[in-house]
Amino acid sequence: MASNSSPRKSGFNDKIMSRPGYGRAGKALKIEANFFELTVPTRLRASQYAVQLFREKRDKGRTVYADVSATELISFNRNCFKALLNKYGSDFGCRLAYNGRSIAYAPTEINRRALGVRFKLTVDGDGNAASSRDRGKSEDVEFILSHAKYLPYEDLFKGRLSTMAASELIACLDVVLAQVAAANHVQVGRSFYNHSNATPLGRRNVTSSAWTGFYQSARLSEKGLLVNMDESFTAFWNRGGQPLSRLIMDANDGQELQCRDNRAIRNVTSKLRGLKVKAMHTGIVYRLHGFSDRGADRITFDSDGRRVSISQYFSDQYNIHLRYGNAPCIKNPSEEGHLSPA
Asked: Where is each PAZ domain found (predicted)?
């Protein structure tokens, strides 16, 4: 039933009280923040270069050189670029900072005779310069650098650049700042980690640990350029000492990986892609690329004129009886069609 009576008024004053001194400058306070001043020469005009990294790839039965700078592991790219600078650094005439993909920066222009030239290197499986001990496990890669644009920091300080152009200059500073830290830390994005303070992640998950590190990022403010620094944490898989089957179970929430569980296979692959594993029967080190959709008991191939499964081959050749013959096999990206039991 509706009422026509007016709402009851409160006995208190409903007016919101203003803060004392509202509208006037208060007492100045000194606030400690995790931002530090970054000094850059006002007239600096850095140069940005496009980087192409060519690596041998198998394409329909033939070997071709393909640009893998955007698809290969960043750690591999960086190691290759480091080997490039160690071998051909004097040809460029100045230092270069590389972002691990397809861009490099220099404080001035590099020697123009080095542009468009194919620089050939022989590297190992990790991208480091190959030695005499790496015979049979090394490969040739090639780099090509071409000039992309200039980065005028004077325009940044005078507010002449668009937001997009300003972000490119900030990205350049991030890459340059990362060069020193990345030399003795593991870089993940803008964070850097060291294993010295690693902490195990629980009793069940024995194959990974938490690492402490720091985060750094260049920022533009009204006062000029700043570096934001903060503490950072992440998890890493432990190096060695555990069978791959145990690591896969940890990555799959303690469950065995099943061939029919496509969702779990995709999830575990995203966590372990690029991980180095060692085959105990041969001593060969592979990088994990993915998993097969069938187990070693069901995958067959021709061996000495007869069809055998991977499980049977290991039993005959190495006297090894696979404990997880029904589990997916791991794929090796460097050898087409090469599968190994987990």
From this structure: 253-341
